[in-house]
Amino acid sequence: EIMLTQSPGTLSLSPGESATLSCRASQSVSSSYFAWYQQKSGQAPRLLIYASFARATGIPDRFIGSGSGTDFTLTISRLEPEDFAVYYCQLFGSGDSSWTFGQGTKVEIK
Amino acid sequence: QVQLQESGPGLVKPSQTLSLTCTISGGSVTSGNFYWGWIRQSAGKGLEWIGHIHTSGNTNYNLSHGSRVTISVGTSKNEFSLKLTSVTAADTAVYYCARARAVTLRYFDYWGQGRLVTVSS
Lengths: 110, 121
Prior knowledge:
The complex is a heterodimer of chains A (110) and B (121). Chain A is mostly beta strands. The model of chain A has no long low-confidence stretch (mean pLDDT 97). Helices cover 0% and strands 57% of the residues of chain A. Chain A is globular. Chain A has no helices and 10 strands. In chain A, the strands form 2 sheets. In chain A, strands 2, 4, 5, 6, 8, 9 and 10 form a 7-stranded mixed β-sheet that branches. A 3-stranded antiparallel β-sheet of chain A has the order 1-3-7, with no helix packed on it. Chain B is an all-beta fold. Chain B contains no helices and 11 strands. In chain B, strand 9 and strand 10 (108-111) form a beta hairpin. The radius of gyration of chain B is 14 Å and the shape is globular. Chains A and B meet through strand 4, strand 5, strand 8 and strand 9 of A and strand 5, strand 9 and strand 10 of B.
């Protein structure tokens, strides 16, 4: 089973700053099967980025996904008040058709 | 536009079976090429995939739940259900149903709002 490790656990930043979130896979994975989600308190997760770098419909261009192999990054430039939330990375394992989520990174207001 | 809605009891007694239904608007479990999945989230914790059913009817489950999980198409083709047997307090969580692409790319694009299920006597 491939594990996803997100870092840091919490990021304390001010509006207008940039956030860099990391997700590391325990072995090399397909970028086509990698995604990022945003979850606000009391809400369902929302798809932000799929295929490592493609923005989902309606997602602002300040959300930038990058990476391949084992290391993936979500960069949020110019944090807006509505961006403070928990972010999860996700991988689909083609070997056993299973889904794995990282443990999440909370982006909080400093 | 696809919409998903979870329904079912919010309180289940220990050792009993948790049963939830996901109703799909704007789509069908048996059309297209998608995975229809269940994901749960315990209080203050992360997301845990429970299992999914493919448009073809094939199912895959998180092995951590052993044989306790069954996902199936509902009585109508715009519903699918989750059954989790022999529940304990550890199964208390918000349960989400979601749709995922099954062609070329893999991601969950539509989610239900979630259903809180508490396991307690």
